[in-house]
Amino acid sequence: xxNSVLGMHLTILAxxxxxxxxxxxxxxxxxxxxxxxxxxxxRIALDHSNLSKxxxxxxxxxxxxxxxxxxxxxxxxxxxAGVLLDGAKAVVAAGPRRIIWLGTYGTGxxxxxxxxxxxxxxxxxxxxxxxxxxxxxxxxxxxGTVFHAGVLTDDPLAPGRTVGLDAAPPFDLGAKVSRExxxxxxxxxxxxxxxPGAVALPLAG
Length: 205
Description:
InterPro entries: NAD(P)-bd_dom, NAD(P)-bd_dom_sf, Polyketide_Oxido-like. 31% of the residues lie in helices and 23% in strands.
């Protein structure tokens, strides 16, 4: 992977969260330079010469430090409605080289592929689903890649594979994938784009 060898500049949103930390740590291990953004940068429990920690909140677009030569990877969660769309708008407006966004399998573009089982998501996310869909739509329209992951775990990195919606399996709460595996798939996409402007599914095994 040429880009991986040379190193890239990556900006990671929500870098203090569980997925964001996995993205940040793995990116540094791959030799990239990382700007890690979090509401409280002190919670980014990593130190590295290639790591810059920056305070930022997606509800305040001016606080999101993104330049045109960076690839943005988002580990944003859904702790409150509006967060994802705020984040997507802020990042798209900043005009980075590429955006790799984390979404949820069974929502928006992947709802049909997921089948009837995806209806259970409304029990977990409720009124936050429209926010997810709107954020995904904004990122896709900007040519970014949206990773629709299933149930996430804190298990270690394991072999995985990434497929498009044409190869998506039915939604299954038992088909879990680790955040470490999802982070690796998102970084693979940043280094070697396979799904620009499309939804991709990170799967275990």
